[in-house]
């Protein structure tokens, strides 16, 4: 026991030491609130902290999951979050790392770190939102290329991307997920790829449809090989969920305390129902962190945490929706009015409230997430009639 | 410290689970819950003799094993899962914690070794008619006479008060809230078991009539120790709740896979799947809450009071919801006395009400984080 306690102290000292050094580095390098963020991105890049958990040979710092979480926490708390330019850092990169050939890893990963390649995710289709295995976008193998034709829907931030990760059907005869390929397609009009931005109920144009009309991509950009796209696609989503699970609290902590400050100022923090709602929200934010730590620790120990991450993602999405509702409720009449200006600008709480409706739809609706968790984590039988996968 | 648990702590979990599978199967739970004492003295002795459980978090200088609170969280999670009928929570999470929270070195040396060895069953008598868990709820008065103290009055909802040989009583003196130790058999002391909705957790009414009592800690300085104990007890209870919640989820899922209606397992219906998925989300979060709070307690963090209230409110509601859904998923059989679902359902509600429910602790949490 005494020996264990000593080891623990050393380990704890190590973790706290890392947090201190991270704080020092942030203090010396982070921009003041509001920017300039370009310089912050360059400094993160120079310090190999864009994808801090990646191996050093691909531009990372090989941080373990707990240290990576500490870094993300400290950056977020300093108002200078880690940089993310799409789904490359946390979805596509990990899929390439796990399922790519050595040549693919060397060819594709450095571009993600440098920001030269900014990925969006072309998985969903108009008729197949959450049911990815039914993807119908065609991928025709012609010589050394795949020629992709189809329409991808609900793509997040396609206008910021220069690459799109597309799930396409290369073997129409094979059922469901067995005939799918994951190809990384240059997103340019010259390559037959066009983006049509969609206005969300928030008024902004974050989403889009991406039409691929004979877009060409070399076979070397098919991750997992032809017809082998399902596994890397699932890896990408699982890593996305794991990242989301570990860092879910970060987006909420600062906003929560801001809401508390407002409630104090308005006097509403004295109302029992408001106090209860704030404590309720604080509880969930703390549990997001506690669960994120559990998952990061288990990942560090080499365990498969995909089940826990899926459960945590469900928790987070439901809370995200509720947080926005609580925020506008606590703020009260002020939320009747939008900020002055052109377009449909929103206050912070209006934004949280309205984007909350997307929290339980995007990346799998709440219903599909529940089915998946029930079947894959709890092992409940699939629904009769082919509803499952 | 490894989070949430080290290999040694996981090994402790396996050992305790094996022990409880053998010693606290459902027939045994049912036998003990119908008995007046509510526990098996032989098992109690084995818990101490074979596994050192009563002395788990008691420092070695008082005869304990000197483990951290994280170990206790593991043990209580398993006890909640097995619905163990024993005065463990009262003895360890209440009485031992309260003694440790005082600065009364003599009392610790006198009283803790017997607890650690499993020779003493102890509890804390705090609550009165009002059913309150705060300092203002303490009305019972202690009188000083001939250099000693005596207690008169009544305490309610005292866990295992009818089998405890040592009762730590929270009472008022002119100087304020103070702590007193009373021995079973002291003059004017009577402990009566009361019938409980949750038969697996025994409660007693205690009467004191000029009962001689020993002052523990300084006169008038008792409340900080009680408050600390309530926080640690809330974390302990949250761990029990997380264990019970996991168990009822397991029961529900197992049944949903086997039970066939309309030609298919009911677990293939989305209505059932979604219930189970929601239970899983809450059970996992409940475990996170208990582990995180237990970790903070092991580290003696300043966040313990806030995290104790957080864990108690979350785990109370998660366990109750899971236990209620378990009955619903079982349908008719879940509504019978014969099925164990109601044992967990009742334990869930009693655990929720003990030491303050979710709403009570949310308000405490709001205060503790400065809202």
Shape of chain B, please?
Answer: globular
Strand content of chain B: 15-25%
Helicity level of chain A: 40-55%
Structural class of chain B: alpha+beta
Number of helices of chain A: 11
User: Greatest interface and its residue counts?
Assistant: A-B, 46 and 44 residues
- Under CATH, the topology of the largest domain in chain B can be stated as Butyryl-CoA Dehydrogenase, subunit A, domain 3
Mean pLDDT score of chain B: 97
Strand content of chain A: 5-15%
Q: What count of domains describes the coordinates of chain A?
A: 3
CATH topology of the largest domain in chain A, anyone? Butyryl-CoA Dehydrogenase, subunit A, domain 3
Largest sheet of chain A, in brief, is: 4 strands, mixed
Using the 3D structure, state the CATH architecture of the largest domain in chain B.
Up-down Bundle
**Spatial strand order of the main sheet of chain A:** 1-4-5-8
What's the SSE pattern of chain A? HHHHHEEEEEEEEHHHHHH
Gap from first CA to last CA of chain B = 31 Å
Would you kindly provide a written description of the structure presented here, covering whatever features stand out?
The complex is a heterodimer of chains A (389) and B (371). By secondary structure, chain A is of the alpha+beta class. Helix content of chain A is 49%, strand content 14%. Chain A folds into three domains: 5-84, no CATH class; 93-228, Butyryl-CoA Dehydrogenase, subunit A, domain 2 (Beta Barrel), CATH 2.40.110; 233-377, Up-down Bundle (Butyryl-CoA Dehydrogenase, subunit A, domain 3). The longest helix of chain A is centred in the last third of the chain and has 29 residues, at 272-300. Mean pLDDT of chain A is 90; it is low at 1-13. By secondary structure, chain B is an alpha+beta fold. Chain B folds into three domains: 7-116, Orthogonal Bundle (Butyryl-Coa Dehydrogenase, subunit A, domain 1); 122-222, Butyryl-CoA Dehydrogenase, subunit A, domain 2 (Beta Barrel), CATH 2.40.110.10; 224-368, Butyryl-CoA Dehydrogenase, subunit A, domain 3 (Up-down Bundle), CATH 1.20.140. In chain B, strands 1, 2, 3, 4, 5, 6 and 7 form a seven-stranded mixed sheet that branches. The mean pLDDT of chain B is 97. The A-B interface holds A 1, 4, 8, 11-12, 260, 263-264, 269, 272, 275-276, 278-280, 282-283, 286-287, 289-291, 293-294, 297, 308, 311-312, 314-315, 318, 367, 369-371, 373-375, 377-384 and B 1-4, 6, 8, 65-67, 253, 256-257, 264-265, 267-270, 272-274, 276-278, 280-281, 284-285, 287-289, 291-292, 307, 310, 313-314, 359, 362-363, 365-366, 369, 371.
């Amino acid at each position: 026991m005494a020996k264990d306690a000593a080891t623990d102290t050393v380990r704890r000292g190590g973790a706290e030491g890392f947090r201190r050094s991270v704080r020092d580095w942030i203090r010396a390098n982070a921009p003041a609130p509001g920017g300039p963020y370009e310089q912050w991105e360059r400094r993160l890049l120079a310090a190999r902290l864009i994808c801090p958990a990646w191996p050093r040979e691909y531009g990372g710092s090989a941080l373990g999951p707990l240290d990576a979480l500490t870094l993300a926490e400290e950056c977020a708390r300093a108002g200078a979050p880690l940089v993310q330019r799409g789904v490359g850092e946390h979805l596509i990169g990990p899929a390439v790392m796990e399922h790519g050939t050595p040549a693919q890893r060397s060819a594709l990963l450095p571009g993600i770190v440098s920001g030269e390649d900014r990925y969006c995710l072309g998985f969903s289709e108009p008729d197949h939102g959450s049911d990815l295995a039914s993807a119908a976008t065609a991928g025709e193998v012609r010589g050394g290329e795949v020629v992709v034709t189809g329409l991808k829907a609900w793509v997040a931030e396609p206008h910021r991307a220069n690459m799109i990760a597309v799930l396409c059907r290369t073997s129409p005869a094979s059922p469901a997920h067995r005939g799918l390929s994951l190809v990384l397609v240059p997103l340019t009009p010259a390559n037959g790829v066009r983006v049509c931005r969609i206005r969300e109920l928030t008024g902004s144009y974050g989403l889009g449809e991406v039409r691929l009309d004979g877009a060409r991509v070399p076979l070397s950009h098919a991750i997992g090989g032809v017809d082998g796209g399902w596994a890397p696609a699932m890896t990408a989503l699982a890593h996305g969920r794991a990242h989301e699970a570990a860092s879910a609290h970060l987006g909420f902590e600062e906003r929560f305390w801001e809401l508390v400050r407002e409630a104090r100022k308005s006097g509403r923090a004295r109302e029992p129902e408001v106090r209860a709602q704030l404590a309720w929200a604080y509880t969930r934010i703390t549990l997001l962190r506690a669960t994120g730590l559990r998952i990061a620790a288990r990942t560090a120990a080499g365990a498969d945490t995909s089940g826990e991450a899926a459960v945590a993602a469900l928790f987070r999405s439901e809370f995200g929706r509720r947080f926005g509702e609580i925020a506008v409720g606590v703020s009260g009449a002020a939320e009747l009015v939008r900020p002055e200006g052109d377009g449909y600008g929103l206050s912070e709480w209006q934004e949280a409230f309205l984007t909350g409706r997307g929290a339980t739809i995007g990346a799998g609706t709440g219903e599909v997430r529940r089915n998946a968790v029930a079947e894959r984590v709890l092992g409940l039988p699939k629904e009769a009639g082919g509803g499952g996968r | 410290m490894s989070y949430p648990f080290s290999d040694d702590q996981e090994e402790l979990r396996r050992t305790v689970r094996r022990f409880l599978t053998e010693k606290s199967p459902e027939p045994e739970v049912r036998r003990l819950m119908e008995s007046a004492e509510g526990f098996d003295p032989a098992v109690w002795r084995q818990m101490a003799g074979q596994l050192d459980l009563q002395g788990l978090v008691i420092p070695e200088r008082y005869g304990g094993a000197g483990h951290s609170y994280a170990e206790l969280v593991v043990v209580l999670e398993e006890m909640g899962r097995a619905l163990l009928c024993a005065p463990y929570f009262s003895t360890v999470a209440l009485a031992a914690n309260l003694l440790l929270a005082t600065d009364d070195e003599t009392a610790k040396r006198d009283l803790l070794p017997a607890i650690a060895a499993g020779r003493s069953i102890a509890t804390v008598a705090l609550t009165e008619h009002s059913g309150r868990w705060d300092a203002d709820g303490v009305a019972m008065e202690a009188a000083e006479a001939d250099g000693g103290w005596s207690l008169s009055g009544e305490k309610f909802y005292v866990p295992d008060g009818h089998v405890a040989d040592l009762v730590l009583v929270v009472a008022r003196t002119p100087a304020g809230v103070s702590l007193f130790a009373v021995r079973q058999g002291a003059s004017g002391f009577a402990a009566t078991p009361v019938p409980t909705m949750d038969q697996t957790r025994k409660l007693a009414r205690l009467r004191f009539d000029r009962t001689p009592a020993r002052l523990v800690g300084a006169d008038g300085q008792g409340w900080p120790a009680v408050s600390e104990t309530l926080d640690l007890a809330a974390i302990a209870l949250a761990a029990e709740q997380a264990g019970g919640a996991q168990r009822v989820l397991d029961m529900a899922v197992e049944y949903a896979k086997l039970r066939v209606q309309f030609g298919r397992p009911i677990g293939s219906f989305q209505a059932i799947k979604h219930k189970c998925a929601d239970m899983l989300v809450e059970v996992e979060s409940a475990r996170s809450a208990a582990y995180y709070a237990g970790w903070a307690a092991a580290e003696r963090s300043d966040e313990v009071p806030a995290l104790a209230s957080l864990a108690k409110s979350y785990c109370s509601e998660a366990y109750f919801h899971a236990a209620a859904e378990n009955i619903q998923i079982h349908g008719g059989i879940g509504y019978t006395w014969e099925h164990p679902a109601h044992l967990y359902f009742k334990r869930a509600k009693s655990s929720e009400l003990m030491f303050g429910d979710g709403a009570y602790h949310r308000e405490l949490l709001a205060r503790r984080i400065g809202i």
